[in-house]
């Protein structure tokens, strides 16, 4: 039986965060609010839980799952190295709506889908999400919807689509306009814009001091 917790009420929020942390540690799925849309999440290092996440979304491993972190410093343990451009973007936009694709550390035991040795990282600007991430560590998180259907802008939207496949729903209120994060690929010699979302390509280019656009 899924449980829904109203995070606008202090007691319910505390209970919900405790239940969500327990669920993540037990290989179960949770839905959490972020600063873009609602996300469905699991322990990033639990391959079985990540498979369950993809199954809940009716999605295959060819569309890998990104990872949310609760602090800047977490990134250092997840990637092969943090290039200066990544540091610059983290300082400018995190927590916020920029996702960074970097080569992941080869020692990590995780399976996020067909990533070709990379990982997409973001620190969300939402207090409930950050509190959960700081409690359980990095989480594999995708938009809380069945593939092909609109991303969930409320916890009820997520519940209507994902139902009992998710153990805990953290209701943080409406997410606002369902605008996704901007994705920047930093695996090559030059930054490449994979998706323009809430942060414009012009804003990213201004921060980096170079023109950032789609790859060839």
How would you describe the overall organization of this protein?
- The chain is α/β, with parallel strands linked by helices and 216 residues long.
- It has one domain (3-208): Alpha-Beta Complex (DHBP synthase), CATH 3.90.870.10.
- The protein is 29% helix and 20% strand.
- The chain is globular.
- Keywords: ATP-binding, Cytoplasm, Nucleotide-binding, Nucleotidyltransferase, Transferase, tRNA processing.
- Its EC number is 2.7.7.87.
- It holds the Pfam family Sua5_yciO_yrdC.
What percentage of the residues does DSSP assign to strands (E)? 15-25%
CATH superfamily: DHBP synthase
Give the assembly state of these chains. Answer: single chain
Q: H/E series, N to C? A: EHEEHEHEEHEHEEEH
Query: How much helix is in the residues?
Result: 25-40%
Low-confidence stretches: none
Highest-level CATH class: Alpha Beta
Total E-strand runs: 10
Distance separating the two termini: 48 Å
Mean pLDDT: 92
By CATH, the architecture is named Alpha-Beta Complex
Largest sheet: 10 strands, mixed
Q: Which radius of gyration do the C-alpha atoms yield?
A: 16 Å
3D shape: globular
Subcellular location: Cytoplasm
Main location: cytoplasm
InterPro entries: DHBP_synth_RibB-like_a/b_dom, Sua5-like_dom, TC-AMP_synthase_SUA5
Organism: Prauserella marina
């Amino acid at each position: 039986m899924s449980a829904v917790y109203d995070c606008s009420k202090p007691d319910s929020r505390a209970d919900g965060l405790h239940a969500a942390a327990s669920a993540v540690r037990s290989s179960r799925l949770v839905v959490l609010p972020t600063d873009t849309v609602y996300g469905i999440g699991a322990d990033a290092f639990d391959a079985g839980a990540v498979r369950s996440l993809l199954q809940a979304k009716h999605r295959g491993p060819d569309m890998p799952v990104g990872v949310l972190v609760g602090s800047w410093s977490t990134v250092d343990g997840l990637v092969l190295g943090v290039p200066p451009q990544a540091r610059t973007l983290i300082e400018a936009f995190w927590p916020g709506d920029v996702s960074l694709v970097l080569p992941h550390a080869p020692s990590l035991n995780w399976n996020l889908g067909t990533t070709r040795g990379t990982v997409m990282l973001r620190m969300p600007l939402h207090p409930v999400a950050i509190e959960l991430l700081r409690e359980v560590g990095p989480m594999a998180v995708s938009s809380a919807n069945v593939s092909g259907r609109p991303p969930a802008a409320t916890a009820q939207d997520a519940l209507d689509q994902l139902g009992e496949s998710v153990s805990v729903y953290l209701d943080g209120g409406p997410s606002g306009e369902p605008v996704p994060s901007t994705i920047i690929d930093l695996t090559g010699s030059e930054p490449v814009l994979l998706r323009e979302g809430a942060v414009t390509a012009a804003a990213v280019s201004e921060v980096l001091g170079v023109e950032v656009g789609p790859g060839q």
